Amino acid sequence: xxxxxxxxxxxxxxxxxxxxxxxxxxxxxxxxxxxxxxxxxxxxxxxxxxxxxxxxxxxxxxxxxxxxxxxxxxxxxxxxxxxxxxxxxxxxxxxxxxxxxxxxxxxxxxxxxxxxxxxxxxxxxxxxxxxxxxxxxxxxxxxxxxxxxxxxxxxxxxxxxxxxxxxxxxxxxxxxxxxxxxxxxxxxxxxxxxxxxxxxxxxxxxxxxxxxxxxxxxxxxxxxxxxxxxxxxxxxxxxxxxxxxxxxxxxxxxxxxxxxxxxxxxxxxxxxxxxxxxxxxxxxxxxxxxxxxxxxxxxxxxxxxxxxxxxxxxxxxxxxxxxxxxxxxxxxxxxxxxxxxxxxxxxxxxxxxxxxxxxxxxxxxxxxxxxxxxxxxxxxxxxxxxxxxxxxxxxxxxxxxxxxx
Length: 405
Description:
mainly beta, Porin, 2 domains, twelve-stranded antiparallel beta barrel, six-stranded mixed β-sheet
């Protein structure tokens, strides 16, 4: 059966005219969505008309604009509300007094702390995450590729763990970052890498290093800040680098200074230029055992970004160069190490308010200080998941306002 083209035209016109109506209805429905009490405003607990304790927040000074948000003080079906602000009093006649004064009572949902959400049943769950504060466990597929000679190892699985925490000290305009017991094990070639402890300090200066004034049109001043920080790493262990069977290396300690070329207002994100020096050793096992102590001056460019305000997307990058200086074997001889890594991590699920994230990573590493027969170039990729514990809500903190000279 064939339909005339005029019928198709009529259907198209009806749909075209109906779309604005549907959009308006959708917008009206969203406006009617149940409101939530404000976490940042005082909450009153009063006895409601049905003899149960309720939570209210009122606003409006004029009789025409007086209203109160009214939320139950228990979950649907009974049970205490979790993560609510403290109540101010338990006044019994207050509800009826507000009604007599002309306040409109609007059904609402109880408040939830920043980074958390409460649904219509009164259940609360975390909806933002700070992955720079957590303990994590991960499992990833991590193949490795030798570039010269060309070879690939595809059946590698990596297990990693670590503890990281970062906090802002606004009064001193500093951010402190700690990493501890961090590392990974790769099977089946048993590569191990770990670090006992690392600390970094970031600082936001209040006095510009250079004040540049331009006179192209209206005079304008441009301030260049030198935001200097520092850091320390202890006990950095690497077993079987580039899958060398009989090599263990340990950096006892490393100290560096850093210039934050760019950093966000809360010092959470940054692009950082680092330079430092470390001291360590390399041990070749087997029949031709040998130990070599080395000094490791280094430079690096490091970047760290939380890409969204809710803490679901993260991007990390690191470009580094190290010049090992031999101290005992062939004393004074220098070698080279260089590398580039980039990683992306995305939270896609939470179990009991503990985030589960997808992690993708790629790296390229060059070393000419390894034993003969070990490939100088190694490329790695990584894809897997991390389960994070105790990651708090992503909070946005502000530094005190600067008064520039």
